[in-house]
Amino acid sequence: MPAQIDMKEVHWLLDIVQCIDVGVIVLDRQYQVEVWNSFMENHSGMQPDEVQGKSLFDQFPEIDETWLRRKVDTVVQLGTRAFSLWEQRPYLVHFKNYQPITGQEDFMYQNVTLLPLSGPTGVVEHICVVIYDVTATATLKKQLNKA
């Protein structure tokens, strides 16, 4: 028997997704954007209605399409999360760095998590991309290595 959906809980969850200080993108299996939270809106300058239903690769040509497709294929096949650290790939989406303390960096360093989102049948139908701003950490580590 399916769990009853409490609309209050759905509302809270949507608020969390919008307010959390990480980027949240939900892609369908054709890499069309379905969810675009306020972090993504603020850092990209693009409103949700400008990107929803459009290809992530068309909106952000800097994304290494071959690399991301390979990562997503693994997530879909195994049904498990995948990660990318800034040391491996400095960013997924090229955002300017807006942090005053770490202002010496030209762009936002990012860690990325890819999460499989299964439909009611258990088949992975969507991918959630979570982008973490790790610019402060990257800057400090680079300064430590330099010293």
Automatic annotation (TrEMBL):
Q: Does the keyword Transferase belong to this entry?
A: yes
PAS domain segment(s):
9-79
Pfam families for this protein: PAS_4 (PF08448)
Membrane-traversing stretches: none
Keywords in alphabetical order: Kinase, Transferase
Its protein name is PAS domain-containing protein
